[in-house]
């Protein structure tokens, strides 16, 4: 039951130092193009859906390269508008063991996406053609123009009967000091428009300012998420808890709250090749489970396995097919496949 | 006591995606040339023997590259015939953690080796010059022409007093449906010609159809291998049991049945860089131990350590010297050698 | 006036030795995916049209990589069917100066495309959606199955009022001995179906067996092409004459015969980075000129400049935009653009 | 007679596609750090002088990498201030033959250098320690803040008896529409402060708006430069005339006007590897000639040879020693030096 | 409180096979320049001090490359003398798991440093300009000329009131058979000149020949180091104990003996990327702690964390800033920093 | 008529900066192993002969890599002795246009080859097995031990009826000041032992001190070579004249003096990729022509074409087959071969 899913979001150029050198040691960079919206729609296109990105790319060689790259990832570029001159970029230096990875941003405030004028996108046309739209809290942090686009598109999709997905994804660096207070009204507006929300207890406590006297993450989650779902009329809330182990492996447990019930996945423990974008793989797994009518158990297990595999794949963008994820849910790690 | 050892087998071109990207993400491939016969004779040449490959390579740039590469590995190319146009190839995408490695074959049925006509090789000449010949079950799976070459060469070596080594190595994909039944008569014919056989309990149960009511691998092994040795008059049977651990390490125990007695190595546990070809390193260790007159204990320990080191080496083909393997048998992993 | 243009043809994997090493010297390959159909439709998509490939790719990692790569090139994959196991491949070793480049093919007769069964493609559906279809003489050389597909699709497009382009492109190696005689009836059938044909005097003389007593290429061209156009009712015939100069530059003159008149481009002389696929750039220029209603002079000049630029671009597939080609037609080579 | 020479200017990160691929074809970039000031002071440090850069770099991994790189080039970083978050960047795609190279800028207006606040630099301290200061017209195009720094530093150096070098280097893209009129007052102010000026007849005509009825470049030069020298009291004006030949070689003639006399170098014709920064090599040659008291003939010949060699070197920044340039002035291109 | 610290020592060119191939498998090498003195002074320059190397580099392209590289690392090259023709080199093949890394030296006895004649360095000038000088036992092993330079410089620094650091670092391969006896008088002479010494119980037992009836490393340490400190009047002795674990991680405990008291760091356990040079990071941490007046606890913890991070960094030379080390002392390994 | 040809000479490790960077700009090196003897015997093995190297390689990872590499080149390693610790190395920085290539040697006087003790090689055994032995003037320049080996081997081959080839190849840097006088007696001794000699008029004038009043190279050649042939009883003398053209191409004319007659090849003009080793290709062509009994015209033409092609091949060692050279003698440079 292939669906048409769009995401609204910025495309970033990732400039990664190969191997484990620092930027001050190396002389080459590997580049790719990604973003939450790119990752989610590319992942869904690997599951057989049609994934569109709604975004704006510069009209130059960098924009051409980004557009080519997105098509390579399976993202349909029909709703991508060209204009402006700059693309947001970030440098990535890989950590090793006790040394953490390091991200350095270039100036993204002047990017083609972030300065797109009113009327850049034909939201009505987009809304007519899609079943589901995906938004992310990082976009919400950018500026008023982008926020206006975001809310306008959400309303257009709602009015055409589509489903709105919102990933809370709060990045302190983008909101600056006093960020939670600045962010709250915008988050509330998006939550009211959303049907499916990606979040955890921290978003409820810090961004929405909800009180709790529980101290354990899971207890807080179980106390607060039902309140959020009720207050903003959200039909499904999902997310993950991540644990960083002393042997450099990570552990992940997925959860989902729907129809007044919580479902949790097994705790998965695994080695990590590239951690960025693994949250988007989880989102895509939840969306796919909902589209396909999986049971909550299967949906959460599928999303968690999708996220686990995304940690083993090069680059931000998940690359696994549905069958590869289903196999990872059931089988032990095996020998070479030949 | 350097010996002349030949192997009869196909040379494959390995086209490997560097690092951990998928074929749909990368743009370069690393290539090398290998095959069970290449691996075994190259490993033996690193131990000081003279290793020959009996094979057929295309008469073009790809064949030239393969021949150069084999010489680089220390394999003597005097018995390699040139003719035909194609070489078998396979693509290798490295897995990481929860994501398994993936092998994709090109069409090898039309390879120079697999379509070599009658009379391609001068088996009598070859048999006169060598002490030991090595064959592999993968070759047996190819087609009637190759099987005829194989058996003819085995008989020629026997008639000149040489030793025949046969590695059962059953690959289900090559025999297709109902494969065990198709394979059985060919395997039996080779076992009757063989002096040294590489196999384990699975080969006895599935390929030779031998019954057992034991359920543990080791019990099955101990029940069945003596029957095989007796039925086909085989003087030495050896092999390994592999265990894949949850932390991505593998464990390996080597075994050997000779003079009606079993010998087992310690269980070795180690990290893996490149798993392909590690079984051939074990074979080469057994052959070397027999040539040198090692005790069964030393032979099995040497072969297991050779296999362990082969997992840490780039490419299919083992690269360790005898002294490096002997050191790995006795010492803990140490600091940099400088 | 963007059109929908499809090409029917095989996708090949190009495995190129980087720099100037031989396959027996190097250890890495650069890979890409191309083919006459890929090149023509990708080039046209860079001019703003929608380019589709009608082809069949294997259902494995190699097929996935090819499909991703085509999308990156701007080719729409809606009419690509997945099935079979093999993709045709060729190795490319770059020549330097006095040493020519060298191409070594793998076995392409068993490729997914070449063994596609009857009913693989929905020709009627394709024909309904496109304005122009492109075929190539290399495809015609493959086997009866492929030839049947080819002619069936050509007839389907004609019956829906579309335009058929046929590039004669005769490759002696593929037809084998006595090739011209074998090829002639198939070429004649395609010429009868075609509206636009890429060919030169050699095709007329050797493939069609047309007599001439002229000895100069241009005189032969002027004598024979009008006869071909008349005999097969072709509205436009175009092609190039290439001259290889002693200083490693090439010179190229484009020609076009339409409405009973010849038009020639200037003789362009240029340095060459990658010669493969430059003929397809010329074809795409002719098709674009016809779509846009350029004068014959502009069409031939545009096609020749497109071909010249394609010689300066990495890989088989042309990458230039319309504006870049128009600028190359008028300006001298300049300084850095910054 | 080693001198202390500083340059005031922005450091840019150059992100170059390796080989001849486009940004939409490749997946890696080579990076380096350069700028007119970097190039001139690095070149002078290769001649044995002490070269300082006066600039501001971001306080993050990108700034660290830039600082390391400048030290590697031999530039003393004592006068480099750290602060801000962004570094200007540009992408470079190498042209080939008929296809020109292409530069795409990122947003440099928010760079650490371009937003450096008043009081960032201790101009008096700098002026005390150096003999010569170098400025460039590209910096003049940035914004009022940078222009203020520039003029303040020029005045400080003058007041301590130092020499001011100004390279007119007008870049239309940076000044925008009506740029010459905007630029003129700033250029005039800098010319009045300058002792040595790099310019040619175009700067006089377009930026300074000086009339001429001559039509040949050289005639215009000879008419206008003496007027410029007189009007702004400049003791030395120098520059080059570049000719782009049809075989992709360039020809260069250096000139210099001093003590009311013109001196011209021979016309040098050469192949080009990397054209960017070759003008800065010429400037460094003129400055070195003046420091060392070369005759005008030798100075102009040295500067032209320095520029020629800079075209053959990888990257923006000249790498030749004085002895290599002197040898290039006298010898024919020879065989391998071994 | 930035200090001027110099180190006297040889610069070596490190030629490393990339990845995990052997020298007989690969075709490229990565090169860098290092040495104990380089590592210590570069590390200290990353902490804000001014680090100088006192050494001699060849007057050719290799020497130029070394000098550039040292500047890139932040080492001041003012006291580097140019002369001679050769640089010591070593090849490094990376081990993996059970396979140890392997170092192969080229001939370093004829290096520019090791044959530097009397009078090469202006020791008095150097001594006047620095606060601390660092020496290493590897240098002491070279030859009489180098030993004379070493002791002369130590005395010059002492006479100007500077601090002498001596790292015992005994390499058996360099002293040859009967090495401890040959080495002892030279070590004793250096210990008498030294204020701060890097050593552990093995140096006391083997090089200095001090008796002990303890069998545990730590007991031996606690017995012997106070005797050493007293006998040679050393104010601070520091070092590490390293343990190689079966899962390829290493554990490290730093110690320090000062004012008649021992201080030990926590036992740190970590994964290793590049082990070479990690001891020099420990030394630099001790020196920095002493300069800054850290408590012994903080100094030992800082030095141990500096060493741990140096194991995670590419190349011999430590790259961490003071703040990165302080964070590594307190925080658990975290998620990506963005 | 395949022959057994040995060469006596040193194996060098070539460490080449990739592309056009300097050693002070780059961070990787490409390595290969070569030498005059390697080049000549590898080239002859590509013509179907059996080529042996007589040399000594270190017993370590560097020696293993060299031995593997030689086998890859087709050189038989049966006469290679292992011992000692060092291999000669040289760094190569590629020039571009006006900037010449640059070679920097490491210390080769202590190489395994140059310090090989008396009795290292079994000259009698070698002499029995080969038809032709090749020596080179570079080896003659090394030291007395090497010269003794060289002359002893030459005499052994003569005494077994073999042919001695001597390439004069005088390198001023190796002989030092007054080199011609030092070299003369050794050259004369070798010339007396030689049957085939590679030299030109400069060797006669400078090394042998023969007077001439001619001023043109060709006139000097024609005057002096017959005297040399007569004085030292040499049956064949051959060599080349090289001209370096202003457009970076080289021109080459081969010559040969035999049976009192001169034969000259056409003047070949060509682009150059890698100039090193091209002289050895010429030598191999002359030897092959003599073995095969070509006419002098064909021999000189074949040798000159072999040398021309060697300029277009990566690395020092010629890679062309006999058929490729024969084709290059007759055909114009053509289009891609496919």
From TrEMBL, chains A, B, C, D, E, F:
<dbReference type="GO" id="GO:0016301">
    <property type="term" value="F:kinase activity"/>
</dbReference>
<comment type="similarity">
    <text>Belongs to the carbohydrate kinase PfkB family.</text>
</comment>
<dbReference type="InterPro" id="IPR029056">
    <property type="entry name" value="Ribokinase-like"/>
</dbReference>
<dbReference type="InterPro" id="IPR052700">
    <property type="entry name" value="Carb_kinase_PfkB-like"/>
</dbReference>
<keyword id="KW-0808">Transferase</keyword>
<dbReference type="InterPro" id="IPR011611">
    <property type="entry name" value="PfkB_dom"/>
</dbReference>
<keyword id="KW-0418">Kinase</keyword>
<protein>
    <submittedName>
        <fullName>Sugar kinase</fullName>
    </submittedName>
</protein>
<dbReference type="Pfam" id="PF00294">
    <property type="entry name" value="PfkB"/>
</dbReference>
<feature type="domain" description="Carbohydrate kinase PfkB">
    <location>
        <begin position="3"/>
        <end position="318"/>
    </location>
</feature>
């Amino acid at each position: 039951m292939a669906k048409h899913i769009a995401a609204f979001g910025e495309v970033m150029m990732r400039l990664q130092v190969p191997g484990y050198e620092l930027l001050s040691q190396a002389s080459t960079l590997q580049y790719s193009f990604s973003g939450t919206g790119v990752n989610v729609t590319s992942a869904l296109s690997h599951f057989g859906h049609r994934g569109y990105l709604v975004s704006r790319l510069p009209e130059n060689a960098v924009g051409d390269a980004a557009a080519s790259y997105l098509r390579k990832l399976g993202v349909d570029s029909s709703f991508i508008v060209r204009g402006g001159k700059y693309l947001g970029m970030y440098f990535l230096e890989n950590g090793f063991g006790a040394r953490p990875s390091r991200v350095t941003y270039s100036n993204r405030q002047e990017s083609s996406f972030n300065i797109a004028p009113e009327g850049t996108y034909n939201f009505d046309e987009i809304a007519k053609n899609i079943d589901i739209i995906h938004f992310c809290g990082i976009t919400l942090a950018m500026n008023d123009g982008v926020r206006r686009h975001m809310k306008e598109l959400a309303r257009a999709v709602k009015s055409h009967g589509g489903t709105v997905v919102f990933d809370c994804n709060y990045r302190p660096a983008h909101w600056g000091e006093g960020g939670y207070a600045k962010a709250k009204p915008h988050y509330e507006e998006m939550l009211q428009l959303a049907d499916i929300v990606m979040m955890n207890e921290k978003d409820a406590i810090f961004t929405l300012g909800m009180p709790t006297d529980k101290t354990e993450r899971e207890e807080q989650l179980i106390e607060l998420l039902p309140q959020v779902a009720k207050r903003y009329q959200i039909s499904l809330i999902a997310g993950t808890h991540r644990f960083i182990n002393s042997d450099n492996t990570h552990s992940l447990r997925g959860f989902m709250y729907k129809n007044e019930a919580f479902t949790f996945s097994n705790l998965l423990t695994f080695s990590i090749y590239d951690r960025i974008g693994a949250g988007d793989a989880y989102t895509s797994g939840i969306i796919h489970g909902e589209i396909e009518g999986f049971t909550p158990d299967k949906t959460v297990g599928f999303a968690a396995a999708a996220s686990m595999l995304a940690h083993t794949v090069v680059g931000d963008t998940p690359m696994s097919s549905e069958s590869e994820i289903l196999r990872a849910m059931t089988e032990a790690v095996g020998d070479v496949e030949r």
